[in-house]
Amino acid sequence: MDSLIALIIGFGIGFGFYYFDLKKGFSSYRKWYKLTHKDPLPAESNKGWVFNQPFSARLSMALVLSLVLAVILFFTGNLNLIMILVYAAVVLVGCLVAFYLSPYLFNKVPGHLEKISKAIEKVDEIEERLKKEETASETAIKEEAKAKSEIEEPETKEEDQPEKKKDDKDDWRSGVKDFLDK
Asked: Which residue from 53, 78, 99, 121 has the fewest beta carbons nearer than 10 Å?
């Protein structure tokens, strides 16, 4: 089971390093190439640490990454050197497989993501249109309800209502006052 986890970690490291190489690795690889070679890398070359490299260059990068992981495992307190070497070998295989699968993954996924983003945009447009229709229908319903209420309930004027007498207010107050006085 531990080897499976190491293989998954190797896949993750391989995919992650390939993504880094695809996005920012060209400039760092150019600097490294300039330091180690007499002639500079041609401007039209689009080589990275792993991108557009032969098997030997990919193997060396996978070996470096797996050795870095082995050193990290050693310094975290794992003293079983045989298990560290087994994990490093499994991570090495995982990195190599990831280096070869990454171009297919990174070429296929953006095309599918564009289709998904177009579908999401269409859903957003439909949602906005439905909200506009809903608000328009709600305002129409409110206007109809106001019109019906005006038709059913004629406006009453103050003249039609019976006048209140000031004596009525005095009557109930005096009754309460009499009750409290008792």
From this structure: 121
Please state at what angle helix 2-23 crosses helix 55-75, rounded to 10 degrees.
120
160 pLDDT exceeds 60?
no
CA-nearest of 155, 19, 1, 170 to 86 is: 1
pLDDT higher than 60, residue 140: yes
Q: Residues 6 or more apart from 86 whose CB is under 8 A from it?
A: 3, 6
Residues with Cβ within 8 Å of residue 28, at least 6 apart in sequence: 49
CA–CA gap between residue 57 and residue 50 (Å, rounded): 7
Domain that holds residue 14: 2-101
The rounded distance, in Å, linking the Cα atoms of 139 and 125 is 21
Span 145-151, mean pLDDT?
A: 74
Q: How many domains does the chain fold into?
A: 1
Residue with tokens 């391989």: 14
Is there a contact between 30 and 41 (Cβ–Cβ < 8 Å)?
yes
Residue 126 within a domain: no
Mean pLDDT, the chain, whole residue set: 79
Q: Compare 71 and 36 and report the one with higher pLDDT.
A: 71
Q: Is residue 173 part of a domain?
A: no
Cα–Cα distance for residue pair 145/150, rounded to 1 Å: 9
81 token code pair: 């050197």
Per-residue tokens: 97:
């497989």
